[in-house]
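ASSEMBLY PREDICTION REQUEST
Request ID: AP-0331
Submitted by: J.K., bench scientist
Number of chains: two
Total residues: 539
Priority: normal
Notes: Please return the full assembly, not individual chains.
Input sequences:
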Amino acid sequence: MKRSLWTGPEFWVPASLGLGGAVSVLLVGGMSPLAWGLALLLGFAGGGLGWYAGGRNQARLKADMATLLQSQQQFVEQVTPVWAAHIETSRQQMEDAISSLTAHFSVIVNRLSETVMAAAQSSGGAGNQGVQMAEVFNASQEQLNQVLVSQTSAMATMNTMMTQVESLRPFTQQLEDMAAEVGKIAMQSNLLSLNAAIEAARAGDLGRGFSIVAKEFRTLANQSAATGQRIGEMVRQVNSAISNTCQAAQESVQQEGESMQSSQQHIDEVLRTFRELTDRLMTSGDLLKNESLQISADIGEALVQFQFQDRVSQILTQVKANIEHFPQYLDKHEQQCLASGQLEPWDSGGFLAEMKKTYVMSDQHASHNAAGSRAATLRPALPAVGQASVKASSASSTPVSASPPAKAADDGDITFF
Amino acid sequence: MAKTIMVVDDSASIRMVVGIALRGAGYDVIEAQDGKDALGKLNGVKVHLIISDVNMPVMDGISFVKAVKQLPNYRFTPIIMLTTESDESKKREGQLAGAKAWVVKPFRPEQMLGAVQKLCLP
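STATUS: Completed
Returned structure:
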């Protein structure tokens, strides 16, 4: 606001009054020396008074300007650190929260990874889980069937043994017949020895020796008869034992057969249950695997989104730095005003240009340009600035492109050198 | 034996995100919060690859890369710059400093792993 000493009403009002009075005195008093002297006196008095009032007013304006600039500087110096502190607090809190969230997600990812890996190892690899289950089922079925085969084989062996034992029955009958034959021979031998003894007695002394032989022969016949009886008894006992054995074996085979049938049913039931279990396990295994993959993908996406914290943090840090720089800018502006003795316009263009130098992301440039364009569009609608004649912001002369705010990339951009 | 990768970033969350991706792929990870911290941790440790941010306090990424290239043991260690910056002049600056790749945040873990596997040769 450049104001000359001569241009303000503080000068011109008394000066005009003095001049008007001088003219009036000349008109009323004519061109007499006295009238000229009085007119000159009035003119000088008006001019001097105007000069004095103008100078005083200018000094007051300068003092007001200095006070204004100083209060403005104090205001900014007091307010901007608070803004910066709030931004820094928000940035720090966001960073802490995101770091904590990331740490929790990290734990989840690790646990999920360990679980999936453990499941894969226990099933011999996630991809082979179905094959492994089928192999286990087939092996179990084969082993259980092998038990049945062994049981059947044992039964066949027992049947063979029973048949063989049964085949002994005719031999025992023959032995019994032979024992009876021995008994008959003994009886006949006894009769023969009796006849021999009779004939020996009839022969007298000559038959005495023969009588002894006949007696011995009869003793032998009696012994043979007893032996035959014992053989017969033994054969009957053996026959009875064979019969009992065959009966026991037959009962055992029957029981084995029933047992094997029951075993077959149980094995079938176990295999059916096992098949259902393996089917369910395979289904749940596939489900678990798919769910794990989906969760991993979701967490991966969340981790990508967390990286925006870094971008936001950088933007806030840059905004904070610019706010902190603002008092310096105002101080410089104050010095310019004091040096020139007038209110200088704020150079927003220079400030914005300095801001642009600190940008590191395309988002920041895009936001800056979009905001600049919006400001340029809105500017004609703003109320006109008064006689303070602050220069139009040089931001309006800064070439800004009306590009929309940059859409944050959700995909990595990789350049290899 | 697992290969070791150093991740240098002032953002703890970014270090964690990169760490999750790398550890999940079987790499060992050393973390540092700025260039100076990273240089201190490099001290004699075998590192197969370095991933570094650009804008960091204390020592920025470009200065860190230049410093690493001065170290005899790490002169040939490949370095990936991981940053929000996508400006071509900045990329060129990174390339001249000695970086082998430039990855713009945010990245997908599989893309980062692809870059790591490409540069982290046996």
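REVIEWER COMMENTS: The mean pLDDT of chain B is 92.
SIGN-OFF: pending second reviewer
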